[in-house]
Amino acid sequence: MLNLQKTTPLDTDYLESLGFVWHTDSDESSYISDELVVLTEVEAEAYYEATNELYDMFVEAAEHVVENDLFHEIGIPFNLVEVIKESWENDVHWHLYGRFDLAGGIDGKPIKLLEFNADTPTALFETAIIQWAMLKKDGLEESSQFNALYEALIDNFKRLVTLEEDVSDFEERYDGWDFLFTSVKGNSEEENTVRLLQHIATEAGYQTEFAYIDDIDFSPEEGIVYKDKSYELWFKLIPWEDIALEESDLAMLLTNIIKSQKAIIFNPAYTLLFQSKGLLKILWDLYPDHPLLLETSFEPLEGQKQVKKPIFGREGGSVSILDEEANDVESVAGDYDSHKMVYQAYTELATDAQGDSYQAGVFYAYEACGLGFRKGGKILDNMSKFVGHIVKG
Residue 79 carries which DSSP code? Predict the structure, then answer.
């Protein structure tokens, strides 16, 4: 049985003092679970090793897509292909961070890749800050977690300049580039996540500014401009696929800005290759029967339970669990029904005594660096809860 440890709930005033304002779900229940998943050191190390191996596999799969022009096959919008190629071929377009969603790893279950949130991953604030505060609140050893996410991000921000593992000469090589951080108006979760990243970048040594997307000007000549100032570095918590499908003029402008080297954008456009669940099918083609992968196809899998999900989708929207005859046995409504679908072999998530499912999320910033969990139903949706962890023995 899954090993859980109860914790003292963090009160809302304290959470809000940290800038964490999305603490209560629409049904008035707490988003932060008052428990920790208890891991062994061996289990934590297995998450670390698996995530690092998976990232290398994603790089190989993305290279395969680029070399063989498989963009359409995995659902990449045609108006981003050029900028994806441009960002893929130049090392200055550094992948800042992403989050792997994994089944297993606890309760004796093998680790299996579900998907990679490589472009605009959520749960950063929860993983880096809140679960550390959960340990602190109960007087537990704060280092007893697989969680160096904050420190890893500081170093990876510095690598945007050094482009190598060693960041000790960042200050000598940093040329005073200004870094603009952006989210949409009206979404407190996204804004405060972006402001946390801005804070980390400032700590790393950058000159930073925050602006809403509506207040920025984009120009092929001037680049990315806010208050009459051009910014060489831009972080946007706005998915590349949304830019492509809903803001085609902006997609063209950003392509020209990148091609003319007016700005570098994070996360880079090529992270959309990783983000596409179509790449899960490419991974299976390249690494058939790999122990970390689940069989994935663009057609229903014959004779086995499976999950049908859109190549671009969030929070479980438009996801269905199908039985061995491909009949729908459970589903979550969503806005992604028009997207191309993939079919991924079903795997059981670890469950607690109440039947809630637990899914691991491992952040990657140059290497695997931070673990958190979500719990909910068989399909995790926007009512799932965040669960911290502690490593013992």
Answer: G
Residues in CB range of 169: below 8 A, 6 or more apart: 162
**Helix (H) or strand (E) run with residue 81 in it:** helix 81-88
What is the C-alpha separation between 74 and 80, in angstroms, rounded? Answer: 13
Report the alpha-carbon distance of residue 119 to residue 104 in Å, rounded: 23
- Separation of alpha carbons 104 and 125, rounded Å: 23
Tens of pLDDT, residue by residue over 287-334, are 999 999 999 999 999 999 999 999 987 776 678 888 898 888 877 776
Per-residue pLDDT averaged across 128-152, rounded?
Answer: 93
Contact predicate 61/286, CB 8 Å: yes
70-71-76 Cα angle (round to 5): 155
pTM over 0.85: yes
**CA–CA distances in Å: residue 274 to residues 25, 63, 132, 174, 269:** 29, 11, 29, 29, 10
The DSSP output letter for 215 is G
* Residues 149 and 369: beta-carbon distance below 8 Å: yes
CA distances from 164 to 128, 155, 393 (A): 23, 10, 34
- What are the strands of the beta sheet with 223-226, ordered from one edge? 217-219, 223-226, 229-231
What's the CA gap between 274 and 271, in Å, rounded?
5
Task: Look at residue 359 in the predicted model and tell me its pLDDT.
Answer: 96
- Per-domain residue ranges for the chain? 4-275+352-391, 300-346
